[in-house]
Amino acid sequence: MVSGYTGGASQNPTYEDHKGHTEAVEVTFDNSVISYQTLLEKFVRSIDVTDAGAQFCDRGNAYKSAIYPLNADQKATAKTVIAE
Question: pLDDT tens for residues 17-71?
Fold first, then answer.
């Protein structure tokens, strides 16, 4: 996994200065070990998908939950898992 920020305008956001960005984690996985769908199922069960204001004690736009699929197949899988 690689942590960082996404979605903002600054080129090099930091923990101290990430206005407009969302904290993000890039997850690399081996589909023969765990599927994308299983990863998503575990993710949506470990967060509060009904809380648009962030997660638990971390509040604000930088801490909102989001999924950034890499392609149309991942996007469709994400929509299915969220709907369930």
Answer: 888 888 888 899 999 999 999 999 998 888 776 777 767 677 777 777 788 899 9
CA distance 74 to 78: 6
d(CA 32, CA 82): 23
CB 6 within 8 A of CB 68: yes
* Measured distance CA(33)–CA(5) in Å, rounded: 27
Sequence-ordered strand ranges (E) for the chain: 2-6, 22-26, 54-55, 58-59
What residues contact residue 58 under an 8 Å CB cut-off, 6+ apart? none
Beta carbons within 8 Å of 40's beta carbon, 6+ residues apart: 67, 77, 78, 81, 82
